[in-house]
Fold each of these.
Amino acid sequence: MTVYKAPVEDVTFLLDDVFQIDRYNNLPGFSDASPDVRAAILEEAAKFAEKVLHPLNHSGDQEGCTRHDDGRVTTPAGFKDAFRQMADGGWLGLSGPAEFGGQGLPVTLSQTVNEFMISANMAFSMYGGLTMGAMAALLVHGSDQQKTTFVPNMMTGKWAGTMNLTEPQCGTDLGLMRTKAVKQADGNYKISGTKIFISGGEQDLTENIVHLVLARIEGAPAGIKGVSLFVVPKRKLNADGSPGEANGVSCGSIEHKMGIHGNSTCVLNFDNAVGTLVGEENKGMQAMFVMMNEARLGVGVQGLAQSEVAYQNAVAYARERLQGRALTGAQAKDKPADPIIVHPDIRRTLMSIRAFNEAARALVVWTSLKSDVAHRSDDAKERQAADDHMGLLTPVVKGMLTDVGFANAVAAQQVYGGHGYIQETGVEQFVRDARIAMIYEGANGIQALDLVGRKLPKDGGRAMTAFFNEVAAFAKENGGNDDLKPFVAPLSASLQHLQQATMWLMQNALAKPDNAGAASTDYLHLFGLVALAYMWARMAKTAQDKLAQGADQPYLKTKLVTGKFFVERMLPETALRLARIQAGAATMMELPAEAF
Ligand SMILES: Cc1cc2nc3c(=O)[nH]c(=O)nc-3n(C[C@H](O)[C@H](O)[C@H](O)COP(=O)(O)OP(=O)(O)OC[C@H]3O[C@@H](n4cnc5c(N)ncnc54)[C@H](O)[C@@H]3O)c2cc1C
């Protein structure tokens, strides 16, 4: 019913030409990802996403997950087999370390594969996504024994991972957490409490589930500083490491929700469940942050992925649906009406989604490349700069790509008119599925506060200054190139807006923190627009260079037109965002609560 074709050509352009990832062959794993290997992996991933996962997207949505009386949860028909195929295909361990059974390839490559899988079936892809996040946290903060016990089994998809933060009284404010951990004589802990909204908390895909759980050790300090991280397997492990008797964790219920029906969202009751500490006591948030950063980038990719699949379907519909005539006269004279793709307003919608998707994809690749450098370079300075970039861009990728990804799914639905509101066409599922990405992994309002309150001022603004300098240097270097002017001049203007906004915050938010809170979402979007404009300028430069070298590909010409649309019609939004930021918090905060 719906269509999906993985954007392999676009990803190849980014990896090979724009970011030239072969330049990073000095980093571990990069030389193994030679152009041929990359092409083969992308082709296989595309096939798996298009032929195995996409056909299960609608049926998974319709069927959803079921909790049985004995607490078991079954996933939709076909998910178990698809999960086995994903695990056997090595997709979970694509960029995992070889010593734990992974293939050690760059995250830059695995994130592009993730996009394909999420577009094809977001609910399904979450089971693997959370497993990868849990592995990342264990690899950084786990003991050697925790790593060797859990990670290889997760890398091969025998076991899955989950992330347990949320409780009924505690979502954003994790300092309110009540789940408690009691130390035992053998060094283990017994965990008791209730976690809610746990994605993949119970399922029938794997023989064991590795729950990473935040809890408060008896006597720990109040608030967020008294929270520790534990690993709690669903089934306790026998002496030989195989899953044995049930641990004290059970699924009390599953949520009936707006979208991602194929992913089980569970209430998990921990009743003296046996777990081991990950990292140090009361340093749980530090350990969990590794998983959350990983997951936040992944959630940003969800926004892009839903925007992409919604776009592809809207284009297919707009080519077929016949309504009205083109303003310039009939185009399809043999038909009773023209396809709606002739109408400028339909094109405005499609071009807006497309221009966002292509730049957002570039931003994901760029940020993933920094993640690889931050984790794999042996040069401490290079690692620090890459880590700065990751810290700064993570809330932007998460917040902006999911806000706009959802808006784009709605815009794609609009192309269908009333048929988009009817379940049969399938486009309304993209809207429902995309919506959650704005909420979990830290609601987008919190991402904006993280950017403005933490990431901007961190280390005296080092990350922000590096970003500004990089964009300004590109603009300076290419400012004299007439062909690039349509990209570079608006990029410079938008950078100025961002710098003005940053200055305004420095002058007005320190003494009045409400000014920072009131500005934060607009600032995040302003930042995101500049980052996307920078991606467009780099893509345009690469496309022009390739055309000048004699490459005559319609793909490159389309790229340039799409980029021009972005700078002409989408980038001017930076002026609006700046004006809102500079309006300050006074009016927003004036009314008493009872006046609302
Ligand atoms: C389908 C689904 C899957 C999920 N999966 C998981 C999972 O696997 N593991 C897990 O642990 N959790 C999971 N969650 C929980 C999710 O991460 C939380 O719902 C989210 O973090 C928000 O918490 P909350 O719902 O309690 O909202 P609240 O914290 O109550 O926030 C409500 C609103 O207030 C805003 N707000 C709160 N505090 C502030 C502040 N200081 N300043 C400004 N605005 C503020 C928020 O942005 C939000 O808009 C899932 C949720 C859903 C719906």
Amino acid sequence: MDKNIVVETKDLTKKYNGTTVVDQLNLHIYENEIFGILGPNGAGKTTTILMLLGLTEPTAGTATVAGHNPTREPLQVKRIVGYMPEKVGFYDSLTPRENLKFIAELNNIPYHTIDAKIDEILKAVGLSKQADQRVGTFSRGMKQRLGIADALIKEPKVVILDEPTAGLDPEGINQILDLIASLPKRGTTVALSSHQLYQVQRVCHSIAIFSRGKVVVAGSLDDLGRKALAEGHYRIEVEVAQASPGLADILAKVKGVSKVETKDNLLIVSADSDLRAELARTVVHANVPLVQMKIQEFSLDAIYMKYFQEKG
Ligand SMILES: Nc1ncnc2c1ncn2[C@@H]1O[C@H](COP(=O)(O)OP(=O)(O)OP(=O)(O)O)[C@@H](O)[C@H]1O
Ligand SMILES: [Mg+2]
């Protein structure tokens, strides 16, 4: 499958007063994926986001967002990128509807479509009831929801969300995660930073873990799990109907298999690729009834903790 890169950085670097806070970063975000940016406080996530948006200038290196250089072409980038900052700010005397109308007009959204778009996005973020209430009276979570509506009203090609669920109640979190998950289908690529590992695991296709201005590991959850927790191996669990002496030796001879461990009816196969089809064929060929087979799943929590315990 050919995938287009929508956001790319090359040796992107930011120093503040001589201190490097983003260090020769090379990121790739593909079209219509949801990309999670993780890492401890101060790791450089927000600084990276600000450089992608042209809101702060890199000290060295370059960024490209949908074909544009944010430093040299900030207006083009702002036109196609939606952004929800870490701290959202609005005109307090306006209502959500008025705030969104203002943003929509600023972005040249066709006038006759604006009202319907506003109703739709307010519903998606759970603010329909408060559509005409002054934003100055809003709770933190309500402002956060409006921030997301703000970033999405122009149906951007790319949306960058800095901690989108911070301050939301559990129902709000679910609603916003569902909304984020629906964006690639509508042609919007998402980059989000978060400390909520479970939420990142739920919606992100790719993840980069930042530490001290560098990406320490990046890839799909499976890639990360294999790198951090399985010495780069695929672990495949093969469950058979009853313990079958000799099967472990047979599986160990399959090309690409490095180790087979046996626990009663379960054989845990370490391999250098996803050999499920080949293993299934081999089990059946050995006349052993196969109950099920699955590839080991990783929890982002375990991956993250492993990184920061060992390398933090
Ligand atoms: N305007 C600034 N001037 C000087 N130092 C800054 C500035 N902005 C950020 N920094 C420093 O850069 C480093 C990275 O900050 P950044 O805000 O990018 O971290 P972050 O990963 O977003 O953290 P958090 O998880 O807390 O949001 C920190 O050490 C911070 O103090
Ligand atoms: Mg931040």
Amino acid sequence: MGEFIGPVAGVDYPTRLAQLRSWFATDADCADYLEWLRWPDGFLCPHCGATSGSRGADGLRRCAGCRRRVSVTAGTVFQDTRTPLTVWFEACWLMAVPKNGVSALTLSEVLPVGSYQTAWTMLAKLRAAMSSADKDRLSGVVEVDEWFHGGVAKGGSSLTGKNLVMAAVERRGGARGFGRARLGVVTGRSAWELRGFVRAHVEPGSRVITDGLSAYRRALAGYVHEPLNESAPDAAEPHELLPGVHRVFSLAERWLLGTHQGGVKREHLAEYLDEFCFRWNRRNARHRGMVFYRLLQHAVAAPPVTYKHLVRVGAAKPVKPLPPGNRGLPGTLEVVGGHRPWRKTAEPS
Ligand SMILES: [Zn+2]
């Protein structure tokens, strides 16, 4: 067995936006990359499991088993999209690589996506792919705390219209700082609510550090619970007692208020928090392009999401006024001259 070598920068994923554009010059280049990610061992028919299929002039595979035409985007978040893959790839880059991701408004201004609503839907689909990542639970020493999104100080009196967010952040100690983070929305601070979040995100047996909220005592049966006494006369400030969760809370809040202008609706908050964690958990990637690669990997593995599902039937649609002349069919970013460094060997027929 050879040593496992991870994806290589500049070969398996692009390292800069300019490189992204030179590799993924056409939709065919993008589709080939998605095939390489989705079927690393060669074509696999999602209908019948056959492993051979010829490629037609339209780029679709004709399955040798069931004779169906199979698109590499079928069964992924890109299914049935009218937006060219070149545009999708650049959207993925803008969402994954910059520290703050990208807002739908900015995306609609910098890419030929046709409308704000299309931009919002694209990002929401990619966000669903991000939510499907990071399912393994945190472990070791984990800080857990709650926070009211929208700016009520802890212990504040008004809960009306506020969103209670919970965080779990691994504490690595010393120079290693903080590890992975999880965020989630809960409806109250009962032991039952707290326990639901912790059970979902922290490995039983881990050492969990919380503030002195009494509900944590019952919530954390099965964990090594270390409650802090914030009211002790010599106690440090909360952000010093639980530095990991307070760092994540303040960055997440700044991101929601800054990049997203505080416009995230309550029913979408959980997915936005997942997006925040997706980048936080990969903040130490050696190359930021690696985060783009991981996003695409999850996008081809995640099931398709419909627009209706994204906006929650009956919920208000995310509509913003459009600048004139910005409505219409999505454009393309296709240019000539792509090459495919990810294909180290001859392309299978
Ligand atoms: Zn088949």
Amino acid sequence: MPDYPPVVPRIVDPDGVDASPHPRAMPVTTDESRSATAAETGGEPLLDFEGTSNPYIDYQSIDLLLSLQHPRSDGYDEMCFVVMGQVKELLFRGLHFELVNAQHRLRADEVGDAMQILGRAGAFVDYLTSSWDVLSTISTEGFNQFRDTLGTASGQLSFMYRHVEFVLGNKSQRLARAHRNVPHVWPALEEALRSPSLYDDAIAVLARRGLAVDRGALDRDWSLPYEPDPSVEAAWREVFADPRSDNELYRLGLALVDIDQRFSVYRWRHFVSVERIIGYKPGTGGSAGVAWLDGVTRHRFFPEIWATANPA
Ligand code: HEM
């Protein structure tokens, strides 16, 4: 157990921060204006600015971002937990952006663009997975020093994570429910719950390219959990029976199952880190802890593509 107290350096005076979440006004530059500035400064960086901020701070509201880390205990490990929790939310945000855009490329039948985007999405998932390298330096004793301050807060209440699950197709009306009372979050999550997922759009591409997909897989209540469909499995089998690098649908299937595999590794790293840190104690969010996580860790987003590895 870290038996030394944390020193939390004060980086930003919160009273000076413009706490608006909206983008701040700032000037744009051009190649010409940048050349003129470099000529004026003799090639040295700009160091004097008007007002109480500078363009680097304003472009991404960095002072606001760096004033949001508030450990609530004297436990040494809490700062690491807070920073990594926030980093992961940002990475989920980045991943979600890529997945939604891949989905839009599929809707436009631009399968090549979608696969390019999925390449970056996979890199995001790997980055998320490696966040457990840092988080698993938190020991059981170190976690216990601040665990009570979490109250009933739990990752299962992450609406950003829920968006990622929903765009990938793991819909749950039950888990979405936790956000119904948050008016600035619920409408987008409810819409995601009720909309087709990336996988639903991939299946629609298969149908548009002439593969026989049953009506029920192309038009259904999207808010219900995905159920494997025999016609979708048959379609993917047909696609995988032609494993040429210039078969775009084959490469799409590979790109999707690759994301699924990487996400499984992410979930597994969470699962084993949790098992190591809290053992078989209940979670802060009300669940049984690892026993509950065991179920969600086994989830696969695109079951019919996994099935193509098995004999028909
Ligand atoms: C390092 C210490 C951590 C422990 C001991 C831990 C433990 C748990 C437990 C026990 C659950 C089950 C739900 C419940 O709380 O009852 C859970 C779920 C979850 N945790 Fe963690 N967690 C940790 C860190 C994190 C971090 C840093 C994140 C990311 C921000 C995270 C994201 C999640 C998510 C998204 C779920 C829901 C999984 C799902 O719905 O499939 N966890 N966690």
